[in-house]
Design goal:
The chain is 20% helix and 41% strand. By secondary structure, it is α/β, with parallel strands linked by helices. The strands form two sheets. The chain has a ten-stranded mixed beta sheet with strand order 2-1-5-8-10-12-14-16-18-20, with helices on one face. Strands 3, 4, 6, 7, 9, 11, 13, 15, 17 and 19 form a ten-stranded mixed beta sheet that branches. It has two domains: 251 residues, no CATH class; 52 residues, no CATH class. Strand 1 and strand 2 form a beta hairpin. The longest helix is centred in the C-terminal third of the chain and has 17 residues.
């Protein structure tokens, strides 16, 4: 504790550890983890205290997109200042590592740390709160529009041993402020990596936040991430989560719509193959009237991969005149691939418009036949149809460099088989 055991910050960490000890790791008997068994993940040892020796030359093979942005690198969970670049003024936005921010302004950091997830009953969230050693702290003051996006790049260096990291990101956006934020997760090396990340996003009144999460990790990468969002009156939140690669992935996106006239949009895309496992859990919790949420998730599954989608919409008694829509669509290309979907609505108000639906099927044979009759080979026709299937989500990504990067990677991935 370094002499700070009595601080409010560490008291929160101590309480989270006690909660984790009570919860224990989840099993398939837990309804929220029914289709996602973490036994293989937790049966392996990981080093959470490695030194940061990564250089810019080591990143070349990762083909990170170039762009004018505030780019922060975290290697094995530790902030790397040498690789990072800041372009926005401190008047527009305050960006710092969580460690530095706590040293420089502990009261401000503590006012946001663990405030959105403190009642979460997920064991991995409690584990992160108890042991998070670094991450980012972002504060956008009232009435500021940040021109350049903030890109958080988390790299696991698993070349020598199994690596673990537990980043904690705190993002506070003031009244009538606007910012674009992206999280990218990559892996170097063939050893196992385990990332347990928690991001808390406070969206102030009339504020706008665009949030993108891109995972393109290794075949031995295990990833569990929770993003918790709270929206106030007239705010706008826009999220896209894209999972390109990884052994085991669990994404939790929970949005509490705690204001009137809010708009929340959630997009997701995933491509498991081999024996990969991708699980997306989402929550849109409407607590005040006159707000709207829209959700679209799409997946393409191959080989012996497994996919899970569990989407919940809550409409509380006071949330009259809520519009909430949810859709999950999947293409399964193998008889051995599995997709489990569970859309849910819990409505406690009577003046609302809500809908949910899910479809899982194969490539449209008529469209495939039409394209082949025009001289297009079957593999190329299937790639084109699948790319068009993804376009509804990819086109929603408003940071050009990220969208172009994803278009190229997706095209390569779809043409592999």
């Amino acid at each position: 504790m370094n002499g700070e055991a009595k601080s409010a910050f560490y008291q929160k960490k101590r309480a989270a550890l006690a909660q984790f000890e009570e919860l224990g790791f989840p099993t398939p008997k837990n309804e929220e983890w029914k289709y996602s068994n973490v036994r293989d993940l937790i049966s392996t040892s990981y080093n959470f205290n490695t030194s940061d020796t990564l250089s810019s030359e080591d990143l070349i093979d990762l083909r990170m997109p170039e762009q004018a942005a505030n780019i922060l690198y975290f290697v094995n969970g530790h902030y790397n200042a040498a690789l990072s670049t800041m372009v926005s003024s401190t008047e527009q936005i305050i960006i710092d590592s969580l460690q530095n921010a706590y040293k420089n302004n502990p009261e401000l950091v503590n006012s946001y740390f663990d405030e959105l997830v403190k009642d979460d009953t997920d064991a991995f969230t409690s584990l992160n709160t108890a042991f998070a050693h670094d991450g980012v702290f972002i504060h956008v003051p009232d009435n500021q529009t940040v021109e350049h996006p903030v890109i958080l790049r988390f790299v696991s260096d698993a070349r020598e041993e199994n690596i673990g990291s537990q980043p904690r990101n705190i993002i506070a956006v003031g009244k009538n402020a606007h910012v674009k934020i992206a999280e990218a997760f990559r892996t170097i090396g063939e050893q196992r990596s385990f990332t347990n990340v928690v991001t808390e996003i406070n969206v102030g009144e009339e504020a706008g936040v665009e949030y993108y999460k891109v995972q393109n990790e290794s075949e031995n990468a295990y990833h569990i991430g929770t993003t918790q969002v709270r929206m106030l009156d007239k705010s706008h939140f826009y999220a896209a989560t894209v999972t390109l690669n990884g052994k085991f992935t669990r994404n939790n996106l929970n949005i509490v719509i705690d204001g009137e006239h809010c708009e929340a949009y959630m997009y997701g895309l995933y491509f498991p193959d081999g024996t990969q496992h991708v699980d997306n859990h989402t929550v849109a919790d409407h607590r005040k009237p006159n707000s709207e949420s829209n959700e679209l998730y799409k997946g393409i599954l191959r080989d012996k991969s497994k996919g899970v989608f569990n989407g919940k919409i809550f409409v509380r008694p006071d949330a009259q005149k809520t519009n909430a829509f949810q859709s999950c669509k999947n293409i399964v290309l193998s008889t051995e691939a599995t997709m489990n979907t569970k859309p849910q609505l819990e409505i406690f108000a009577d003046d609302v418009k809500c809908s949910h639906g899910t479809t899982t099927g194969q490539i449209d044979e008529e469209a495939l036949f039409y394209m082949r009759s025009r001289g297009i080979s079957k593999p190329e026709a299937m790639s084109l149809l699948m790319f068009a299937f993804c376009a509804d989500v990819v086109s929603q990504i408003k940071i050009d460099s990220i969208r172009e990067y994803l278009e190229n990677v997706i095209a390569e991935k779809l043409s592999e088989k």
